[in-house]
Write a structure and sequence with these properties.
alpha/beta, 6-stranded mixed sheet, globular
Length: 394
């Protein structure tokens, strides 16, 4: 009997996890990626909760841990850089997780350990999908076509293929928060902690160490202009205007972004859907349920989704609809838990006024006190479940 064939669209964490587990359970896998080559780089992600078990089943726990960013903890700082509070970091799933790595390093580790036979087609993207009763035909931007038994869409939050197939079933929840990410030169003042600064005007600055001799920086603000439609130069100009009086390391970060070759920005949007599969098409990762950095755990959910999908397809090889339904039922509680943000969280996290900032700083002090530290630590325990992962057939 010939192997089942799968096309995976997207070569980041969700797509690579799906490719890994599908290939390991006997599928012929082709991965389509619109970038011209594998994309290194990116900001911090972490592996938490049940995703740690997935990584162990891949025999990659130690390999990923070896890519640790060197970050040892998380502190909240004031305009002078002095620490005003430190978030609890005991256990493997604190604000700085035991498995704290860069997105590109995690994806590269999976890529380097894929089972043999996985085919990659870089520089292509899906132009059309014909979802038939017996197979699904994918037409790519090169004019070629691929026939498969399954299409896994792992293209990220702004997936065009998802929108094409699921249409009005895609619900977008705009959070009103813009994040700008980039890599800047490391200086002697940088240390091994995630330093987090909040100031008036709904603005934040984050500096985090990496394992490549540089520093990962984030400028984040709420209820301000959406910069996603601007070119790089205009976006950076608007950022300079917004952060002109922000203080702390704002000027350094902006100067670094001006010279950095990996700056990217995002307007945070949750994706919520009642179903993640239709016919022979299934969604994985942010394409189906983007939780955004506000919820956290996106990489862990992406990593877990590939395993759970392949496991149920292996358990029910002759019943695709049932396998996809069971995949969705298993993943849904994890996703719903992360997507439930506390009401008004953006107002608390991004205070606009001096009074709001003072209230936020007081709350931070209370929340990180010895009395409440155990409760605070639980807030970062995402992608966690008491359920066992579905077993793969021997």
């Amino acid at each position: 009997m010939s192997s089942r064939r799968a096309v995976v669209s997207g070569a980041s964490i969700a797509g690579l996890s799906a490719a890994y587990w599908l290939a390991r359970t006997g599928w012929d896998v082709t991965v389509i990626e619109r970038a011209p080559a594998f994309r290194d780089g990116g900001q911090n992600v972490d592996v938490r909760g049940v995703a740690r078990d997935v990584l162990t089943r891949m025999d990659l726990f130690d390999a990923v841990k070896a890519q640790n960013t060197t970050e040892t903890g998380t502190v909240l700082v004031d305009a002078s850089g002095a620490v005003r509070a430190e978030l609890p970091s005991e256990g493997p799933d604190g604000p700085t997780a035991e498995l704290e790595v860069l997105r590109g390093d995690l994806a590269r580790t999976i890529l380097d350990h894929l089972p043999g036979g996985v085919v990659f087609r870089y520089g292509e993207q899906i132009e059309d999908v014909d979802d038939g009763a017996d197979d699904v035909t994918v037409t790519t931007s090169s004019g070629g076509s691929l026939r498969a038994d399954l299409l896994v869409v792992a293209e990220g939050v702004r997936s065009a293929t998802r929108d094409r197939i699921f249409g009005d079933a895609v619900e977008r929840r705009e959070l009103g928060i813009t994040m700008v990410f980039g890599t800047i030169p490391r200086t002697a003042s940088d240390d091994d902690r995630w330093r987090w600064y909040t100031t008036v005007g709904g603005r934040q600055i984050h500096l985090r160490p990496d394992n490549h001799g540089t520093t990962r920086a984030i400028l984040s603000y709420a209820r301000g202009e959406d910069l996603t439609g601007l070119d790089r130069a205009d976006a950076l100009t608007r950022l300079r205007e917004r952060y002109a009086d922000a203080g702390w390391e704002a000027e350094r970060v902006l100067d670094g972004f001006a010279e950095s070759d990996d700056v990217y920005l995002d307007r945070l949007t949750q994706i919520r859907m009642s179903t993640w599969h239709r016919g022979r098409v299934v969604l994985a990762g942010d394409a189906g349920w983007c939780v955004t950095p506000m919820g956290g755990g996106g990489a862990s959910l992406a990593l877990t989704s590939g395993y759970v999908l392949a496991a149920y397809l292996a358990v029910e090889p002759g019943d695709l609809p049932s396998a996809l339904t069971r995949y969705q039922e298993w993943m849904r509680p994890l996703v719903d838990d992360v997507q439930k943000l506390p009401p008004g969280i953006e107002h608390f996290a991004y205070p606009q006024t001096r009074l709001g900032l003072a209230a936020r700083e007081l709350f931070d002090t209370v929340l990180t006190s010895k009395l409440l530290a155990p409760l605070t630590a639980k807030l970062t325990q995402v992608a966690d479940t008491d359920r066992s992962l579905p077993d793969l057939p021997a």
